[in-house]
Write a structure and sequence with these properties.
Blueprint (H helix, E strand, L loop, with lengths): L3 E5 L3 H13 L3 E5 L2 H11 L3 E4 L8 H11 L4 E6 L4 H10 L3 E4 L4 H16 L2 H4 L7 E3 L5 H10 L4 E7 L5 E7 L2 E7 L2 E2 L1 H8 L4 E6 L15 H20 L5 H11 L3 E8 L4 E7 L6 H23 L11 E4 L3 E7 L5 E8 L4 H25 L1
Parallel strand pairs: 1-2, 1-3, 3-4, 4-5
Antiparallel strand pairs: 6-11, 7-8, 7-11, 8-9, 9-10, 12-13, 12-16, 14-15, 15-16
Helix pairs in contact: 1-5, 2-3, 8-9, 10-12
Amino acid sequence: MKKKILIVEPDKELQVRLSDALRDRGYQVLASENFEEADDTLHFLKPDVVIMELLLPDRNGVDLIVNIKQNQPGARIIVFTDIKGSTIERSVKKKGADIFINKVGNVEEDTAKILDAVDELLRPREEKTQPVEGFKGNLEGVDLKDLVQAFSLMGRDIIIKIRDVKTFKEGTLYFRAGAVVDAKAGAKRGVDAFKEIMMWENGIFEVAYPNPDEPIETTIDVPLDVLLLDVVREQDEMLQETTKPRFTPKEVLKHIRAEIPGFIGAMVFDYEEGAPLETETILEGKSFHASATLYGGILKSAMEAMEFVTQGNEKSRDFIDMIITDKYDHVIMVPLHVETFAVFLLVNVDTNPHEALNVVKRYVPLLVELYKEQEASM
């Protein structure tokens, strides 16, 4: 089967020249001029190699590299760009590019460079592979997914034994003609074992050939690209869970206070029940009498503002953000649209009320999430 190559190049002349030259070499060539076209092609036609410019008319080319590695980890990437510099080269290679080539502006010379790079990436495996039996290595600083892809490209029957130095767990991956067909990790077998092994970050590995008298069993019939994509998704989900800020509503109000000059007080309250849920004031930590007085004043202002908005009617679930100003201060109300909760903010008259409103609105999605979590746990 012909190898598929996607060229992402806004320069139409260069794109055509590269396409013709690659077709002459026997490759199936696809072409796109921008990120959107390339994204569609990647999803539906799954090229083996992507040759791409970083300067795209609709999106940053680095975003495309990230997209390729997330959705088709096995695709090889050649960055072929007018952007020069060792910093950008290191950056795109870290994101997943295999080869970085600067354009010289001569179509013939540029085309020759690309042909050499493609041939290097897709050279028949038997020309590039060397015996690997007994090969050992350390996984520190190495992405195990990249290692597995590299051994897959050899197209051989091999076994990789891996030991995680953190947990002392051991796992084994079995390759047949470059495809992962079996995995073992403790009591796990097949896809579950493969995914567990891919989550290990530090360890040692050893490569060997299988015993011809003991054929490799098949417990995995999923393509490696699909397996790695599932692993990447699960890692992303785990990362989002561990990096997700675990604020409380009270802490959110403290952040709002810190960002608004002229802050006097803030409250999350249930305007149907007329009850405060969380409060934060400039008198926090002062005497009980002073704090209670200000809390009472804030709650009274909140209820008056609510009455002003609804005009005594049953419209409490329908109101939108508002700013009410008198000669002393601004009253800012923002509904949360969870239960009948809202944020009430009191700032002095010298504060820009619209800037204060924007600060509160930035935190509204987090407050909504926190109160929905509380509601679900009850």
